[in-house]
Request: fold
Amino acid sequence: MNPALRTLLLLVTGFAASGCSTLRDAPPVDEPVQGPVPAVIDPALERRDIVRPEIDTEDWEVGAFAGALSVEDFGAEAIYGLRLAYHATEDIYLEGRYAASSIRDTSFRRIGAPIFDTEKEDLTAYDLSIGVMVLPGEVFLGTRWARTSGVYMNFGVGRVEFADRDSISYAFGFGLKVLPTDWLSLRLEARDNIFESDLLGENEWKHNFEINLGFGAYF
Reply:
């Protein structure tokens, strides 16, 4: 055999034997690594307890409110009343409302044109409305106080008695409800109370804006 060819064969054989020995001595690829694995991220977060009250399982809610009513042509006066609501679901409710106020014609009397027989006339209103919770969520005060809340809208139909006149009325409103506990509710509400009036000589639909703050209890 050619000496150069013999030398080449010997080198190839030597390399092959060395490679097999290396593969035989190497640990298996899927053999688990011994020892603890260092954590990439240490989730050492301080957890805080949040109590989230839900609406009580009772369906009825009774409440009271007080605020200000601006009667078109006569200015703003105090208003107060009572509410009784039936919650058909967590987001839909029916509500009956009674409200009372006293309206003054002081500005007309100053120019010698009184509208009422006396300076003050009582206004009472009754209506039945349907309300929908449109933005349920939570309200936060600080880092540890979170309570269930929601923004709602309502529409109502009723009657208004004012200055010896009785008129059908419509009401559109929206507000914010917060539940400090599972049986108590706090409400801030704005409404537009619409009814007909001819006190100034022409029968017109009047927009009478109201804002009130109230509370309620579930039972």
User: Anything to note?
Assistant: The CA atoms of residues 60 and 157 lie 20 Å apart. Strands lie at 60-71, 75-87, 92-104, 120-141, 145-162, 165-179, 184-197, 204-218. Residues 19-23 have pLDDT under 50 and may be disordered. Residues 3-25 form the longest helix (23 residues).
